[in-house]
Design goal:
CATH architecture of one domain: 3-Layer(aba) Sandwich
Number of helices: 14
CATH topology of one domain: Aspartate Aminotransferase, domain 2
CATH superfamily of one domain: Type I PLP-dependent aspartate aminotransferase-like (Major domain)
Strand content: 5-15%
Bound molecules: pyridoxal-5'-phosphate
Helix content: 25-40%
Strand order of the largest sheet: 1-7-6-5-4-2-3
Distance between the termini: 59 Å
Radius of gyration: 24 Å
Shape: globular
């Protein structure tokens, strides 16, 4: 064995003790860490010839990179939709790396069964019935990709075509996708699927919202005639956290033929709360659903779920025929159900966290995060410096500077200054052509104290 490897193997107990203490020290001080950090020009170092060993690598990491890592796992990182990692999820992730099992190795390990059971627990958490099967993928983008890929296969069947086998060439009609406020990852997925970004036909939203205008959707479907199509419903959107009305969309099935994919990357967590569940009623009417785990479930990157009522079609798309693989269709033979062949035990951090905190734990996180978002929204309403652009829905706060001539540039400058404080991290956006700011609260650690710090920082930062 190579010398450095042998040394590290011999010292493994010391190494683990050291890293436990190192992790403890870091966890104790995460709260003091800057959430967004100005980066420097790191340059790229050449590959080491002999290797420097683990402890020297750690020293190097500390000197070169550690202080430039943001506290995105912390309580005041409000950019994008970013969750942290619960204590149980962190340990689950650690054990996942410790065993380093490949979920695709169906017959020789409990890893596939852990995955199957965890998906069952998640269906329970989100109130999804048994008609749904699930898989883990790397993120909501990949989950949207799986949903659209399977929908594409479903459309092929209507024309007696097997798109997975024969491609898109001989379809009699182009495939149309209808959506009002799709996440950018939907376009990315359409590009990857060879359907093209222009296959998405934008449906209007209601005036003061990002929700789909049902009458406009009907107009589009009327023009579509009896040709099958795909509807991507958004629950919720990244700016205003609007939810498409799934009940009304579902009713349209009586007259029109469509696949309903619901992107509920973070809005799906409204289902955990008796208070907010009404926002996403009828989720079970979907054909396929995207929900992210590395967002509000607060497990480490990279992890998301895809739920489907059409596992057989998903199998047709992702089947990976090879002599050394079990070829059978089953709901835990994941190598044939997802874009990835080999895959880590993404389920384990989720399994740990669901076991540790249960339904109530997640309801508490969602309710607390939302209450904090609403309280921040109320503060903004009374402010002279900011304007709330939309009533707060769930965990998202959308606002802008009240000064005249607010432009994307002035918003970006303000965001940079906020970032320099290191106290909070927020992201800029554009809502109905209005440059704006958005705060999304989805971390298990965030409390009222963090909102006070956020409010102080927003007010004390010049614009
Ligand atoms: C609604 C929605 N869909 C999809 C995505 C893409 O998620 P991921 O970055 O996990 O691929 C996001 C991420 O913010 C999102 O908010």
């Amino acid at each position: 064995m190579y010398e450095q490897l042998q040394t590290d193997k011999n010292q493994i107990n010391d190494i683990i003790d050291y890293f436990c203490n190192y992790s403890k020290e870091k966890l104790a001080h995460f709260d003091e860490r800057d959430v967004g950090i100005k980066q420097i020009d790191f340059g790229i170092e050449p590959l080491s010839k002999n290797g420097i060993g683990l402890f020297n690598s750690l020293e190097k990491f500390k000197n070169r990179y550690e202080k430039y890592l943001s506290a995105s796992m912390g309580a005041r990182y409000f950019g994008f939709v970013t969750g942290g990692s619960t204590p149980a999820a962190l340990i689950g992730d650690w054990i996942s790396a410790l065993y380093d099992n490949n979920v695709a190795n169906l017959k020789e390990s409990s890893s596939s069964h852990i995955t199957l059971e965890t998906l069952q627990l998640l269906k329970n958490l989100f109130g999804l019935h048994d008609a749904f099967d699930g898989v883990f993928v790397s993120g909501a983008t990949m989950s949207n990709f799986v949903g659209l890929a399977t929908a594409r296969q479903w459309i092929g069947k209507h024309y007696a075509k097997d798109i997975a086998n024969d491609g898109l060439q001989n379809l009699p009609e182009p495939i149309n996708i209808y959506s009002a406020s799709p996440h950018s990852s939907i376009y990315k997925s359409l590009s990857m699927l060879g359907l093209g970004k222009t296959s998405l036909k934008k449906v209007q939203t209601y005036k003061q919202s990002e929700s789909i205008d049902i009458e406009d959707l009907k107009r589009h479907l009327e023009m579509q005639g009896n040709k099958p199509c795909i509807i991507v419903a958004n629950c919720g959107t990244v700016n205003t956290v609007s939810f498409d009305n799934l009940k009304e969309i579902s009713k349209l099935r009586k007259k029109y033929t469509f696949w309903l994919h619901v992107d509920a990357a973070f809005g799906g967590f409204a289902r955990c709360s008796t208070k907010y569940r009404h926002l996403i009623e009828n989720l079970e009417d979907a054909d396929s659903i995207t929900i992210d785990a590395h967002k509000w479930l607060n497990v480490p990157y990279d992890s998301a779920m895809h739920f489907t009522k059409h596992l057989r079609l998903q199998f047709e798309v992702f089947q990976n025929a090879a002599a050394y693989l079990d070829p059978d269709f089953s709901n835990d033979n994941y190598v044939h159900l997802t874009p990835e062949n080999s895959q880590r035990m993404r389920a384990l951090p989720v399994w740990f966290s669901l076991n540790a905190y249960g339904k109530k734990g997640y309801e508490e996180i969602v309710d607390r995060n939302c209450a904090l978002a609403y309280s921040l929204g109320e503060k903004i309403k009374t402010s002279k410096k900011f304007i709330l652009l939309h009533e707060v829905i769930l965990n998202g706060v959308l606002f802008t500077l009240s000064k005249d001539n607010t432009t994307s540039q002035s918003i970006n400058e303000f965001v940079s200054k906020i970032k320099e404080t290191g106290k909070i991290f927020i992201t800029p956006s554009l809502y109905k052509n209005q440059p704006c700011l958005r705060i999304s609260i989805s971390n298990w650690q965030t409390t009222q104290k963090d909102i006070e710090i956020a409010w102080e920082t927003l007010n004390n930062t010049p614009c």
